[in-house]
Amino acid sequence: MHNALSIMLGWQFLVAAYHKLSERQGYQELIQAWQIVPSFIGRQLVVPLAAVELLLVVGFVFESLVLITTLVGAGLLLLYAAAISINIARGRRELNCGCSGLLRRYPMTWRLVARNLLLVCLTLFWGSSAGETPHGWAAWGAATGLGLLFIVTWHAMNDIMLGYADPDDN
Fold first, then answer.
1. pLDDT at position 103, please?
2. What is the DSSP string of 108-156?
3. Which residues contact 65 (CB under 8 A, 6 or more apart)?
4. What is the domain extent for residue 55?
5. For residues 72 and 54, what is the distance between their CA atoms, to the nearest angstrom?
6. Contact yes or no for 98/156 (Cβ under 8 A)
7. Average predicted confidence (pLDDT) for the chain
8. How many domains does one find in the chain?
């Protein structure tokens, strides 16, 4: 289970970093639109956030980094959940969370906050299950299959739970 969660959580952060780096200007505008930090800081956050997400991907691979990966991963997810919660409380639900790239529009909802809190729990569980992992090619093969199943299920659940709004549906 630990290895499968390594793959799933690593994938989540890899995709998040990819979107931030490939759509940098759009994410700069998105962070500014959230109005959580001053505008001049918001413009500078995209690359550092993506860098932290990429470092987390590395952390999910190496067991020697489990403690720092668990703390930083859970902390970053809590930070995102807090930013979403603040905007919901301000009545700014129409904002895109940017969770799956800028083209997939997920508005701010409490379900999105709950989803991030679920990811925090999975990250903490991953960190607590370190060292109980079977090793070898067979274990990683099974973990890869389970990890891929987690990823597909997670993305399907996102679209169902968060009410993905396809821009072409207008």
1. 66
2. --HHHHHHHHHHHHHHHHHHHTTT----SHHHHHHHHHHHHHHHHHHHH
3. 58, 59
4. 2-169
5. 12
6. no
7. 82
8. 1
